[in-house]
Amino acid sequence: MSSRTKESSVKNNKNWDDVLARFDIQNQDESDLFGFHAEANTETKDTGVQTSESLTPRWATRAILLVGCATALGNIPLQSYLPNSSVNQFEITFNQPADNFDQSTSAVENKPLSSQTVNYASITKSMIPKPIVEASTSVINQSLPQNSRKQQKVISTAESDTSRERFNEEIQELPLPKHALVTYTGHELINTESTWNTYTVKRYDNPTNIFRQIKQSKILKDLNKIDAIADALKDMKMGTIVRAKSYKGKLEELAFTPDHKNSFVIKPTDSDSYTGSWQKKQFEVRQARATFSVKNGIFLDAKKVDVPNNIMRQVVTVFDWDIDFSHDVRVGDQVTVVFENIYHDGDLVGSQNLLAAEFINKGKIYRSIRHTTARGLTDYFTPTGREMKRAFIRTPVAHARVSSHFNPGRFHPILHKLRAHKGTDFAARRGTPIIATGDGEVKLIGRKGGYGNTIVLKHREGYTTLYSHLSKFKKGLKKGQVVAQGDIIGYVGSTGLATGPHLHYEFRKNNIPANPLTVELPNSMSLTKEELVKFKVDALNMKLQLNVLHRFAMENFDINSATGG
Q: Considering only 7-11, 261-265, 503-507, which range has the smallest mean pLDDT?
């Protein structure tokens, strides 16, 4: 080999090493990717054969790399030519013994097999697209001299039948879909600039005020012209949630629900009119949970953990038979509630029923669970099935302060002598409503000595209640009239022997006075044996929730950030 040829060979080898290094392929010898082999670190006496044999595989490899690069740049989906098999994948093998790889080459050159390990990488040919294989074979054959072609023929003959079969594997083409794949279906396009206005109907609301609140006053007249819609609008009673969706003031959808199950939905039509129908599952009911400690007041502390006022009012009503909320609540008392939230279109729009609650007052635990009996009556019961509701409530004046307790040996502030105080005094502003603490009949209504204006109610099983120092009676209330628990019967005043406006309230059984704040109150309704069995089954889930929430509350674990649903 001439000096110029050697210099050219050295230069070519250097450039190819740089290419290998750039593609991060290290320690590769001049091994063939398609069955062409050249022994490493071995010089051949025939310099012409050595030159062609060393250069040809190099050019074949370059041709394959160029085709691969062109494929990548042209975004040709080679994957579509590959057989769909988890077994037949590209196989790249490194550092195999030379005697396992170069047997055919050694046989041709009549050279002894070497046990020296040769660094090479082999790719399973059956996985390469046939057009690329044929193109690369053609390039190699044209560049080979005559004697090298004979050598190639011998090598090809020596290949196993299995290799030839894999070479001729059928190409599996993956058909592309005629249309682009749909990635998001089933929902209409949403105008992100539309807004919802929500309003809950109050006791004295009328349709005009309701539509003013949802900013749709101008369409009310048109809606009343449609009989089906006009009839539905009459169901907008107190507590109904009304929602209106609009874009730049133009109505897109209006929905309202009187019971959170059935909803009336109104939508505009293409003819500038409106259509409406009753639908289900428009509003979604989800359970929510919260727990908090009393610090500044139960309503204020409840608001901080997103418990609505209507839920806390239910808590007060449920536990009012056991806890005097006017003076028994202490800082540090613990409250836990499970209730229902109402959602519409992903927005929280209201809340309804208290499902279960726990109130820890002065270290004593009170629990209540909502249950509907077989007769359809819904009430609250203890976990053991005892009804929470009593025949009487303890406080006849809402949010009043106890100014004087039941005391048989009290010193009278006006008479200045010991005189038994047979009831409890509730201080409140003049004119504050007074309610009946239980179902009963008016036994006395009028003036009664130092009691001033007085009402006496007769209840079942020998119970009576007395209300005195009233400023006035409820209009129309007469002796013998039957009143229900919670009905207004009069108003706070200071008639009779009173130092200021307050209510003197007495609770008696068989005419024997008792402390209304501590006496054990009788139940108003009890469950039958069959109902008790059903209640324990239905209440099991709520009992478990209260147990878990109680443990978290005792460990001061904040559950209020993740208690929805």
A: 7-11
Distance from the first to the final alpha carbon of the chain: 85
Residue 498: the pLDDT is 84
Average pLDDT score, the chain: 75
Distance from C-alpha of 196 to C-alpha of 490, rounded to nearest angstrom: 44
Q: Where are the domains of the chain?
A: 3-167, 195-281, 284-389+526-554, 401-514
| Other beta carbons within 10 Å of 440 | 24
Instruction: Give the DSSP H/E element, type plus range, for residue 57.
Output: helix 47-73
Question: Cα-flanking dihedrals φ and ψ of residue 188, to 5°?
Answer: -75, 160
Give the whole-angstrom CA distance, residue 247 versus residue 191.
8
Q: Where are the beta strands (DSSP E) in 345-484?
A: 347-361, 364-372, 378-381, 401-404, 424-427, 433-435, 440-447, 453-458, 463-473, 482-483
At 403 the pLDDT is 84
**Topology, domain 284-389+526-554:** Nuclear Transport Factor 2; Chain: A, (3.10.450)
CA distance 219 to 217: 6
Task: Return d(Cα 274, Cα 223) in angstroms, integer.
Answer: 7
Angle (CA) 393-398-403 rounded to 5° is: 95
Rounded CA-CA distance 153/292 in Å is: 88
- What pLDDT score does 84 carry? 46
**Alpha carbon distances (Å) from 346 to 194, 274, 285, 503:** 14, 25, 11, 48
Tell me, yes or no, if the pTM score tops 0.85.
no
Each residue of 248-278: pLDDT tens digit?
889 999 999 988 888 999 999 988 899 999 9
pLDDT at 495 over 50: yes
| C-alpha distances in Å from residue 412, one per residue of 240, 386, 404 | 52, 40, 11
Interatomic CA distance for residues 318 and 389, integer angstroms: 7
For every residue of 481-544, DSSP letters joined together read -EE-TT-EEEEEB--SS-SSSEEEEEEEETTEEE-TTTSPPPBS----HHHHHHHHHHTHHHHH
Please write the tens of the pLDDT for every residue from 460-488: 888 999 999 999 999 999 999 999 888 99
Q: Which two tokens stand for residue 140?
A: 């190699």
- Kindly state the DSSP code that residue 50 receives in the 8-state scheme: H
State the pLDDT at residue 235.
Answer: 82
Domains 195-281 and 284-389+526-554 share a fold: yes
96 dihedral zone (left: phi>0; alpha: psi -120 to 50; beta): beta
The pair of three-digit structure tokens given for residue 276, joined into one six-digit string = 């409406």
Residue 460 DSSP symbol: G
pLDDT digits (tens, 9 = 90+) for 198-234: 999 988 888 899 999 999 989 999 999 999 999 999 8
**410-422: average pLDDT:** 61
Going from the C-alpha of 98 to that of each of 9, 26, 119, the distances in angstroms are 24, 17, 8
**Which architecture characterizes domain 401-514 according to CATH?**
Distorted Sandwich (2.70)
